[in-house]
Backbone:
């Protein structure tokens, strides 16, 4: 019996991606890697949107929002990278453990 | 001249000395000659205006009482009590118009005299300022038409008298005399005040006319005749204090500690006459009983004053006691119904007594100069035993003094004879009408005593030989500013100014214009009617004159025998009747009596009150303080332990949690994200 791909599978994949993203964000020392974790989180959300567009009641709206999120992710990456670049300029590092100015 | 003009002039006369006082008080010391010319000039302007007012009043409105009234206080409705309205104003009748001249004339000449007498005094300008204040207050008494301003002026007069008696306050006796005068006057004033309050409580007005009208309509205080008599006598109590009547006469001799011109102005001519004037003002409401009391008080005062004057050796004290005695005469005159005579005596007495005092001032001044010249600082310049023979060195002073003495002794052709004779005739008439024969008898005895002690004074001072012939060389007549007032006052002591008949004043202008006011008290309370009284006076006129001539002559003769011809040794007589002599010299022991009865008692009561204060009041206060202290301590402890403990506990808890939670804040974004995710998970779990 061929495997029937259902909404559950998509959601499962999305959850794994989200968990990996969170893991990346929380554990990586390198700021670039943290940003990549964020991309993973965003993409897990995209998978959810697309899946709901196919199986749920979102219809084409889900597709549109997915594209919107991709654009948003791109612009977010631009800004975030600019911040990282500035942090590097100021502190000569991209290690987030050393960037603990918020404590003060 | 219209009525308004006369009232305006009166107001100006009243305000001139006040203006002078204000100027003297603020700028006196900066003015050239310390402003004596200014104050004196104002008084002379006032004197001129007074003559104008007197002339205008008597010639144009002899029958009318001019009044000017304004509402000072107007509370339409005071909650709980009746509407309160106080009208003030001035009143000008014939009596007030003559008194205006008396006050301003004596005052003006005393000012002039003071320029000479007070020259070089330390508080020269202040002295003139106070004289101005006094003149203002005295004129206020004269011109008022209500009890309110009367009382205020009354107290102001007392104050200025106090200030002037104590002018040389470095001298303890002067400061004490001022206090004594003030306090003794207060005693009389309490009565005066109570009397005013009775009248105000009944009639709700201070105005003389309104009160008299109310009494006249049969509305007597609290419906009782006794209250009416009491109100009259209480008002008279004020007069007893101010006019130095028995038993409050003790302050006047001591008041001689003040400068002599002050004695002349205040303690002889004007202020002490204020009491007599007050009785005259309120004459209409006096019942027969009240008038009888006034007559007896007057005659007792006259006797006391005259007897003490015989043995005094201080020139001013002799005059002081003679003043008391003469004031007694005035009261006697008013009391027996010889109203015009009493007030006439007030006026004539003002001239000659002011003259006598100024004359004594001239003598004392000259004696001071002579003693100073001789380097003698121990001899008393006021003791008549140190004088004698001054006639040759001080002719003007002597002759004027002699005229004044003739006047006060009641020698014909003088003003004093006219007025005193009328009083005595009135007393005689009263005695024969009512049976109170003691009054005329004592009246004539005093007349004889007066002639005796006054001539004793003149003989010892001016005639005979001087106690120290060397000193006499240095005695000089006083300057013009001092002799001119004496001369003017001496001229005014001649009969022609009052009546062209030297043996009867009743045909003169004074008796024509100043008449006894109609009594307003109920008929049953009145004494003999004016017609009956005047008829009796008329009948008794000739015997009265003969009797008074006889006693005056006897007194003068006795004085000459004892002190001039020395047929009787006065010292020997004094030794023979030593107890009486001592009794008189100790002034009837009044001072001692008051010291024991009043002063000691007051001090005793004060001691008890002080003990009460010390023990009970202070104990209460200290007890309260102790309780407060204890409760403050307890509440302090409570604050420190409980309240502070609670506050500290809150802070400690906050600090504890702060320390614990501080660990969570790492400053690392990743940690925060973990917390956020954990938090979201928890919420998901909870709100599943």
Residues:
């Amino acid at each position: 019996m061929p495997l029937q791909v259902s909404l559950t599978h998509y959601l499962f994949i999305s959850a794994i991606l989200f968990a990996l993203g969170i893991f990346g964000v929380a554990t990586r020392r390198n700021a670039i890697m943290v940003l990549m974790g964020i991309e993973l989180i965003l993409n897990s959300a995209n998978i959810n949107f697309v899946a709901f567009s196919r199986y749920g009641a979102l219809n084409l709206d889900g597709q549109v929002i997915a594209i919107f999120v991709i654009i948003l992710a791109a612009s977010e990456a631009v800004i975030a990278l600019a911040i990282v670049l500035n942090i590097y300029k100021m502190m000569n590092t991209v290690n987030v453990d050393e960037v603990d100015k918020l404590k003060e | 001249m219209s009525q308004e003009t006369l009232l305006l002039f009166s107001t100006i006369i009243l305000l001139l000395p006040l203006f002078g006082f204000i100027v003297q008080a603020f700028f006196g010391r900066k003015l050239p000659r310390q402003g004596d010319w200014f104050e004196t000039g104002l008084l002379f302007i006032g004197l001129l205006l007074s003559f104008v007012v007197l002339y205008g009043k008597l010639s144009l409105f002899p029958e009318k009482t001019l009044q000017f009234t304004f509402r000072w206080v107007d509370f339409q409705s005071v909650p709980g009590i009746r509407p309160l309205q106080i009208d003030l104003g001035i009143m000008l009748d014939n009596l007030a118009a003559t008194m205006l001249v008396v006050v301003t004339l004596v005052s003006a000449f005393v000012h002039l005299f003071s320029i000479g007498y007070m020259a070089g005094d330390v508080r020269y300008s202040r002295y003139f300022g106070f004289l101005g204040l006094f003149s203002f207050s005295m004129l206020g008494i004269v011109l008022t038409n209500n009890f309110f301003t009367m009382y205020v002026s009354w107290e102001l007069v007392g104050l200025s008298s106090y200030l002037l008696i104590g002018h040389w306050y470095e001298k303890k006796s002067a400061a004490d005399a001022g206090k004594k005068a003030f306090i003794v006057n207060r005693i009389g004033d309490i009565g005066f005040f109570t009397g005013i309050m009775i009248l105000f409580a009944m009639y709700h007005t201070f105005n003389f006319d309104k009160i008299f009208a109310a009494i006249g309509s049969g509305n007597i205080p609290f419906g009782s005749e006794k209250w009416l008599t009491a109100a009259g006598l209480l008002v008279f109590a004020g007069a007893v204090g101010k006019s130095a009547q028995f038993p409050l006469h003790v302050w006047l001799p001591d008041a001689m500690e003040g400068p002599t011109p002050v004695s002349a102005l205040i303690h002889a001519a004007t202020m002490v006459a204020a009491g007599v004037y007050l009785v005259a003002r309120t004459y209409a409401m006096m019942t027969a009983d009240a008038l009888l009391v006034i007559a007896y008080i007057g005659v007792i005062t006259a006797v006391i004053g005259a007897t003490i004057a015989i043995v005094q050796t201080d020139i001013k004290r002799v005059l002081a006691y003679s003043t008391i005695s003469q004031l007694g005469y005035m009261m006697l005159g008013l009391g027996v119904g010889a109203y015009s005579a009493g007030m006439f005596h007030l006026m004539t007495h003002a001239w000659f007594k002011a003259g006598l005092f100024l004359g004594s001032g001239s003598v004392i001044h000259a004696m001071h100069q002579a003693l100073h010249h001789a380097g003698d600082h121990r001899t008393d310049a006021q003791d008549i035993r140190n004088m004698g023979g001054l006639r040759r060195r001080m002719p003007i002073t002597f002759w004027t003094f002699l005229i004044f003495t003739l006047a006060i002794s009641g020698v014909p052709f003088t003003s004093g004879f006219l007025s005193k004779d009328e009083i005595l005739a009135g007393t005689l008439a009263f005695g024969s009408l009512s049976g109170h024969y003691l009054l005329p008898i004592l009246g004539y005895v005093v007349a004889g005593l007066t002639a005796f002690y006054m001539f004793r004074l003149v003989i010892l001072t001016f005639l005979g030989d001087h106690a120290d012939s060397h000193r006499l060389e240095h005695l000089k007549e006083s300057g013009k500013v001092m002799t001119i007032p004496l001369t003017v006052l001496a001229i005014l002591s001649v009969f022609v100014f009052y009546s062209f008949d030297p043996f009867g004043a009743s045909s003169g202008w004074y008796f024509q214009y100043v008449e006894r006011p109609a009594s307003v008290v109920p008929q049953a309370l009145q004494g003999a009617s004016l017609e009956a009284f005047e008829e009796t006076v008329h009948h008794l006129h000739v015997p009265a004159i003969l009797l008074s001539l006889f006693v005056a002559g006897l007194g003068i003769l006795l004085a000459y025998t004892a002190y001039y011809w020395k047929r009787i040794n006065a010292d020997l007589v004094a030794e023979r009747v030593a107890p009486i002599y001592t009794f008189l010299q100790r002034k009837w022991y009044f001072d001692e009596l008051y010291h024991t009865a009043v002063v000691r008692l007051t001090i005793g009561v004060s001691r008890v009150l002080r003990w009460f204060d010390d023990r009970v009041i202070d104990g209460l206060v200290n007890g309260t303080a102790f309780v407060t202290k204890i409760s403050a301590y307890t509440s302090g402890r409570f604050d420190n332990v409980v309240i502070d403990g609670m506050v500290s506990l809150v802070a400690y808890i906050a600090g504890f949690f702060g320390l614990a939670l501080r660990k969570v804040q790492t400053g690392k974004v990743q940690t925060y994200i973990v917390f956020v995710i954990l938090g979201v998970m928890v919420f998901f779990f909870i709100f599943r």
Observations:
- The two ends of chain B are 117 Å apart (CA to CA).
